[in-house]
UniProtKB/TrEMBL annotation:
It holds the Pfam family HATPase_c. The keyword Transferase applies. InterPro entries: HATPase_C_sf, HATPase_dom, His_kinase_dom, Sig_transdc_His_kin-like_C. Residues 240-448 form the Histidine kinase domain. This is histidine kinase.
């Protein structure tokens, strides 16, 4: 039980600290904390209280430990079903009116309050009145499990994080429903000792999720902090470097123009050709510095209302000369009017599309789709290129990392695109496998973008 105690309270701490503002994370953390409280009660019952008695602890210490054991046990029994159902409601994304969203948690407390007031108090073998509690605890857990499993998730990289949540959360809770409520209600007491293995399995899934596809957005948060610090360093460093190079390029251009006039006046053709080369190099330096600066400076959005599908279509239309023999398949339902920065969004889409076109090297299929979930609009760009191995995937979003060997690529396209999505309160995810192509998923939150659907504008465009 010591492992279960530390595992569950560690999970609770990680989930709480990762995103304190998220109702889903708060309630999942409370669920893990409640389960850990039950493990603490078991530790006190099996080990710590007997050890205190064996060591001759005073009556006051023994009474304090017993009260902690009683509180932890009852708290766990009552609040595991409660917080699980609240977590499921938030995770499922049920659209409740504000008054109902505020009232529901209090209404769900009614069975807990009634059991606390009108059932016998705690004792070691009957911590709660199981044959009464089972009638509300089991429906709470069953309803929560149905809500979690019924969550609509598009078949994208996001689906993997959903199933990680299901495998990490549902088995321990469902086993607890059977071992902690149903079996004790028919006289089979103290079955909670068998929860250790299933909680351990859930913890392993949680830890694996942190280091693979993410769990409840936690890996994304870690990545975001890393990107934040990296982009801040890149921005400050390149700002100083840009300033220095721009000044020197300006001096080259100034003196080059002076030398050019002198060469023309004295009819020195060879000197004039050399000066033209210097002026061309200075102009190229200024152009490159400008391009790097635009990609690394902090973005200032200029939001306006527009059809997201039209913005994407305009960006793709500008790339048609670059397609060659590549087939472009576009399927987007128009009519979603959003508050976005049209230019930055189009540039972000262009970056991903150009990467796909270059990866396919003139042959293949680029598929672009726009779908919706309850809370998000998801733009997917999928190519049939060579794909990426794990090493490339792990470094793809790092600033200045690039596999392209041309002088016009700085490895800033993906970091810039990620930055644009974050400015829109959205996310950018990637799925790629060597030999199977690459997919990018732009997730635009409807609420943040004030997205409204206008059926009159709807038309299906397929190329």
């Amino acid at each position: 039980m010591l492992f279960v105690f530390f595992a569950l309270w560690t999970v609770a701490s990680i989930v709480w600290l990762s995103d304190p503002g998220s109702a889903v994370n708060r309630r999942l953390g409370a669920l893990a904390f409640s389960g850990g409280a039950g493990a603490l009660a078991a530790l006190l019952d099996l080990s710590w209280v007997p050890y205190a008695i064996e060591q001759g602890a005073g009556q006051g210490i023994q009474r304090l430990l017993y009260r902690l054991q009683a509180f932890s046990s009852v708290f766990s029994y009552y609040f595991v079903p409660y917080y699980f159902l609240l977590f499921a409601i938030s995770y499922r994304g049920l659209a409740l009116k504000r008054v109902y969203a505020r009232t529901l948690p209090w209404l769900l407390l009614i069975p807990i309050v009634l059991c606390t007031l009108f059932t016998p108090g705690y004792n070691t073998y009957h911590p709660i009145t199981f044959n009464i509690v089972v009638w509300w605890a089991v429906p709470y857990i069953a309803a929560g499990a149905c809500l979690v499993l019924s969550k609509r998730v598009p078949p994208t990289a996001i689906a993997r994080t959903h199933w990680l949540v299901c495998f990490a959360v549902l088995p321990p809770v469902l086993f607890a429903m059977v071992l902690n409520y149903i079996m004790p209600s028919v006289g089979m007491l103290r079955m909670w000792v068998y929860n250790t293995w299933i909680v351990g399995l859930g913890t392993i899934v949680f830890v694996l999720g942190l280091f693979t596809y993410g769990f409840m957005g936690i890996r994304i948060l870690i990545d975001r902090k890393r990107y934040d610090s990296t982009l801040r360093a890149v921005t400050s460093g390149t700002a100083m470097l840009n300033h220095a190079i721009k000044n020197d390029a300006g001096k080259l251009r100034l003196f080059g123009e002076k030398m050019k006039r002198y060469a023309i006046q004295t009819s020195q053709e060879e000197l004039l050709a050399d000066v033209e080369a210097v002026l061309s190099a200075s102009r190229h330096m200024e152009e490159m510095v400008g391009r790097v600066h635009r990609r690394t400076e902090d973005l200032q959005l200029r939001p306006e209302r527009g059809d997201l599908a039209e913005v994407v279509e305009d960006a793709l239309r500008a790339l048609e000369p670059s397609l060659g023999a590549i087939q472009l398949h576009v399927s987007m339902a128009r009519g979603w009017i959003c508050t976005i920065d049209r230019a930055q969004t189009a540039e972000a889409v262009t970056n991903i599309a150009m990467n796909a076109i270059e990866a396919m090297n003139g042959q293949g299929v680029l598929t672009v789709t726009l779908t919706e979930t309850k809370r998000e609009l998801i733009l997917e760009l999928t190519d049939t290129g060579p794909g990426m191995d794990r090493k490339l995937r792990m470094s793809a979003f790092d600033p200045f990392y690039t596999t392209k060997r041309t002088g016009h690529n700085f490895g800033l396209g993906l970091p810039y695109t990620l930055h644009v999505m974050r400015k829109h309160k959205g996310t950018l995810q990637m799925r790629s496998k060597k030999g199977e192509g690459t997919s990018f998923y732009f997730s635009f939150p409807k609420k943040a973008l004030q997205a409204e659907y206008h059926p009159a504008r709807t038309e299906e465009r397929i190329q």
